[in-house]
Amino acid sequence: MFGKVRAWSRRHEKLAGVLRVAPLATLCAILAIPYASAPSTATSGPYLGVAGYAALSAALLLPLLWRDRAVASFAAIALISFGQWLAGVNPLPANLAVLVALWAVAYRCAFRWSLAAGLVTELGVFLAMSRWDTPTLGMFFSASIFAVTVWLTGLYASTRRRYLEGLEERAERAERERDQQARMAAAAERARIARELHDVVAHNVSVMVVQADGAGYALDSDPEQAREAVRAISKTGRAALAEMRRLVGVLREGEQVGTDYTPQPGLGQLEDLVRGSGVPARLQVGGVPVELPEGQQLAVYRIVQEALTNALKHGGPGAQALVEIDYSGPELVVRVTDDGRGAAAPRSADGHGLIGMRERVGMYGGAVSAEPLRGGGFEVLARLPMVKAA
Q1: pTM given for the model
Q2: Contact 87, 43 (CB under 8 A)
Q3: Is residue 63 classed exposed, middle or buried when 0-12, 13-18 and 19+ CB atoms within 10 A define those classes?
Q4: Any bridge partners for residue 326, and if so which?
Q5: Which of 27-36, 254-263, 360-369 has the lowest mean pLDDT?
Q6: Which of 16, 25, 42, 204 is surrounded by the fewest CB atoms within 10 Å?
Q7: Which residues have C-beta within 8 Å of that of residue 168, sequence separation ≥ 6?
Q8: Per-residue pLDDT tens for 284-321?
């Protein structure tokens, strides 16, 4: 219950501040009736009248609305009360605002401020009682006990608040550490699955290669043995595919369910990619094209796609791009250049395009660089050893 009230007060700070002051304001309004009906000679000090009573009460109560400035609120109320004492005006119900402000200082501020506020309150109690006709030590002691009780209550509430905030902070830190450990455990598990996938593929492919060699040797001399070898290859291949699907399914946990049977793009789709890139671009092919493995073709396609995306995002208006594929050397050279802003283009803080290109090229022992050109523009250059498709 108290937690809900505290949460509500945090969401509606201004309304909560008004509700805190409302009981004391209501008390002042109720006691204004006998004050107004009393004759002006009934008080030992100056008679303020209804307007003066209301003005002084409002001046004492309004600083209580300064919820986030407890010291300033207490100082303002204490100064107003001291001015009231200097003018000889008798204490009003609104002077209880000093105790409310004292509690707020003890609750919200450091101990040195709460101690200073407590001493000022004690001085105020002494000054107020010194104007009475017959002040006694017992009366001063009783009033001091009341003020000290309010002060200690504020200190206790402050200590408990800090204790609860510490518990909440520790709980949040423990939750973050738990989530981090869960992510680390998931990453470790995925790394283990990746190693296991490598072992499964390597083992089954090795078995299939041996069986295929045996079938090739026995094809003429022992057809039955060759058929058995082919059946073993088929069985091993199906087992490898099933195991790969199981392991890759774990690695893809959380992705959209479903299987995409669309072939992966390759060099044959580069022209369509260049035409639909969104930036004016043209494709230029040098040398005699060589049939490359599908994985290497996909790597080239993704490199060109990422480079054209960067040209579209950072090249600026009117930028044009040139995609060059060169088969003439010992390496496949992929160069994508644009005439955009180059070094003047803003860098994206969360971009992973270059990292992805390096990973794809690194799979085939190649290298990639991406840098602005002199005089403007940007260049992405990738070199991959050419491996003919089997």
Answers
A1: 0.43
A2: no
A3: buried
A4: 286, 333
A5: 254-263
A6: 42
A7: none
A8: 999 888 888 877 888 898 889 888 888 887 777 778 89
